[in-house]
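task queued by scheduler; priority normal; single chain, no ligands, no partner chains; default sampling; output format set to structure tokens
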Amino acid sequence: EKEDIVNQLKELSEQVGDIHRLNENLEEEVQVQMKERQKALEEVERCAHAAAALEAEVETLRQVQEVKEEERHAEVAQDSAVVEDIQNQLDMNKSRLDGVSHVVDDVARLVVSSLVADVRVELRHERDAMEQEKREAERATEEDRAIHALLNPKTDQDAKNQAR
């Protein structure tokens, strides 16, 4: 029985040794896992910082984009106002040109009417002068004939007519 007890003690001693080795292996494994966990936690923390930095950058870019979009809307509104102002000025200028065109047409009609009247008056004067010249020429011709007839009577009857 002693021998059984000794054998049992040896077995127990071997089991205790196995347990110690398992404990050591487990402690080593726990240390490795702790180190890996620490590395993973550090990586998670680094990623969290990087994510926070990216979120901040995204927010900054979003704000910049909003400002640029507001500026663009303001520029478009300003450009639209300028275009509308130019269109209004063009419309006013067109109205003015239409008015000026009517005035020019009226003035042209008056000038043409005046020129036509002046030409008619001039033509009337020329016609009157020509008629006067014609009458004078006819009278001169009649006088010349009468003088010629007086100076050169053709027949006795002509001489009597001349004497009268």
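post-processing summary
- Residues 106 and 162 are 66 Å apart (CA to CA).
- The radius of gyration is 67 Å.
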